Every structure is written in C-alpha cells, then in structure tokens.
Task: inverse folding
C-alpha cells in the first residue's frame, strides 16, 4: 500500500500545483467524464465479471478514494499538457507515452498488491489505454465546443 499512497500523493500534488493551461471548468467537466468512464468499466469488469480489482474483492471506501484521486490527477495532467496545436504524430506519440506510463503503473500496482487480476491480462489494459486517453481528448474538445456555443449565445443575447 506504500506504493499506492506515495504515487497517488505525488500525482495529486503534481495535478494541483502544475500551472494550468486548461480552464477550471474544463478540468471539472473532464474529470467527471473520466470518473464516469472509469467507474462504469470497474462496475462491469470488476464487480460484475470479477476480472480485476483494487486492494481486495468488492467495493471499499479506500478503493473509491484512490480511484477518485487517480482519475482526477491523471486526467488533469494528461489534458493539461496535451499537444493540441501540434501535428497528429505528436498527438499519437503523446497518447502512446501516457499509455505506456499507465501500463507500467498498472504492472507495478499489480506487483505491490494495490491492484489484482482474476483473469484480466496486462495486455488488455495496454490495448485499452490509447482508446481511453483518446476519449479524454475527444471529451475535452466536445466540452470546449459546448462552452463556445454557450458563450456565443450569451454574448449575442446581450
């Protein structure tokens, strides 16, 4: 559990104290998307099919707290430094780098008993991480589009 407490603390501090390039409303809304996506997957793969889990089988308050902090921190750090105005290649490399980081983190989490597998394989996660990180970017772009529409509508009504 030392691994979990240490890394989650570091990720959280980085997420909170890193200068932000994205707006607070974007962090807020994308965090809830990431949290919804993660919890939905966990309900299906962990609680329904028992393929993996955190700390011990079933739901625990400790796991919920860890998951919340991890999703907030990774989502904020990932989207804050995403190369929005760079080439497609730069975006792909960035997503792949974060996917490799997440896969390595998961591997260490499994080896330190913070995370366990019951039929799940690390390579499943390795395949899913690029999809997950891409969905975070697409969600942020959607949030920005909605905000842009809202701001334009409010300005035109003045």
Result:
């Amino acid at each position: 559990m030392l691994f979990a407490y240490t890394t989650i603390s570091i990720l959280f501090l980085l997420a909170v104290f890193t200068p932000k390039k994205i707006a607070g409303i974007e962090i807020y809304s994308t965090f809830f998307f990431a949290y919804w996506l993660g919890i939905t997957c966990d309900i299906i793969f962990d609680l329904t099919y028992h393929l993996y889990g955190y700390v011990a089988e079933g739901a625990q308050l400790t796991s919920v707290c860890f998951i919340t902090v991890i999703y907030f921190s990774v989502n904020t750090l990932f989207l804050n430094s995403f190369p929005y105005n760079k080439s497609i290649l730069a975006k792909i490399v960035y997503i792949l780098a974060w996917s490799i980081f997440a896969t390595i983190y998961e591997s260490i989490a499994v080896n330190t008993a913070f995370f366990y597998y019951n039929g799940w394989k690390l390579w499943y996660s390795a395949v899913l991480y690029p999809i997950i990180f891409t969905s975070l970017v697409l969600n942020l772009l959607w949030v920005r589009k909605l905000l842009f529409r809202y701001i334009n509508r409010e300005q035109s009504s003045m």
Q: What stands out?
A: Residues 122-156 form the longest helix (35 residues). The CA atoms of residues 65 and 110 lie 18 Å apart.
